[in-house]
Amino acid sequence: MTCQIDLTGLHNQDMLHLLSSSLIITFAVINGVSALTLPAPEAIEVPLRLVSRPQQDDPELLHRRQADSTLIYEQTNLEPVIQVGVGTPAKDFYLVFDTGSADLWVPGPFCTSRQGCPSGRRYDPGRSSTHASVPLSRSLFTAVYGSQTTTGEYMEDTITIADNVTLPSQEIAAVLKTKGLLSSGNHGGGVVIDGIMGAGYPTLTMSSTRYNYQYLPVPQHLYESKVVPEPFFSVYIDGDDSRGGSVVFGGLQQNAVSDSLRKTPVVKSTYFNGDATHYYQWRAHISEFSRTTTGDNSSSTALLTMDEGSSFHFDTGTATSRLPNGQGDKLARALFGDSHVRHLYNVYLISDCTQFRNRDDWVMNLSFPDTEGNSFTIDFKPSDLLIDYSPLFDLCMFGFMDGDDYFIGNNLMKDYATIFNFGDNTIGFADINDE
């Protein structure tokens, strides 16, 4: 159908306005631009599922085949897993959503179970129409995650999240070989983990460390590409393991109470590589652990006071929170009493677990500095601090284990939505409405 315009009776000025408008409309149509049809970016919520990592390659427990070590491993290695499509057409992979690293990697075409990729799902760049190489001078990918070592090749391709949201030209790594905690097929939850989606700062990528070349990890790339509206992502680990929780790119969970948001500054720490001039990890200072009794005669008692140089790494890829230098032992005994605490390997078992789970007369407080020079606390009930261990003997594990660094793991991300903001470099906490 052809549209015709009657120009009869128009003056010269009217003609100029009409022609000018026609040219603008024509230009807009040719370039596919229309202010009326361009959708505003929206937050993207993606489900997480909790999956247990395999036991057999854990160096700390490799020589221990007792029931104790198996139970400890199963309870301290639950990972939040996100489903991501890679390439065109998209091939789905199950990746640990990890704020403690920044690279996204998946099994490459030649990574079989013998090379540490047991799922059978492999990314073949030759079969993707959107694959692109990176310069050879920075193409080698090598990474160490605790006891896991991974080698492969950097490249670019389109990734797909939430079924139909695509992100072109995302830098990823196709792995040739991996050895360590993801390389066994004995995963729980009916899912075999394929790799990792890192959500740290660009300076934390292995490309930045090895080649001094920084690319944007997925959350930052989504924002810079105007796919999502805000420069942050929020993580909520649901206390019901069957539901898992979610990560929201560019927004908050629907059940998060937005006006309860409290923020603490991200700390520039020397812990990662000795450099305190850049942001690398999602680290924040916790000034104090305390216990507050509830009721009419409430009172607060300081349990641990942290020096200003200490900072906690907020790491979704670490299942259990950690304290170094025997501070976990001190905290456990202060909260639950000497007679109820047993130190086993690097964890603390709590006896008479049922009575503590049912207590509502005290909470543990974590105190943070806010962005205005004041402070705030987030609170945890006794049941929030305990992890199932042996119901038969009424034993639980304390939510903090021994470690060589300060960690807040995903076990303490079940009561709040945790907001990682790379726009103002803060970590925030929002209450969750369970109703």
UniProtKB/TrEMBL annotation:
The active site is at D98, D315. CDD domains: pepsin_like. Disulfide bonds join C111-C117. GO terms for molecular function: aspartic-type endopeptidase activity. InterPro entries: Aspartic_peptidase_A1, Pepsin-like_dom, PEPTIDASE_A1, Peptidase_aspartic_dom_sf. The keyword Disulfide bond applies. Keywords: Disulfide bond, Hydrolase, Protease. GO terms for cellular component: fungal-type vacuole. Residues 80-430 form the Peptidase A1 domain. Pfam families: Asp. One of its GO terms (biological process) is proteolysis. SUPFAM superfamilies: Acid proteases (SSF50630). Belongs to the peptidase A1 family. This is Aspartic protease.
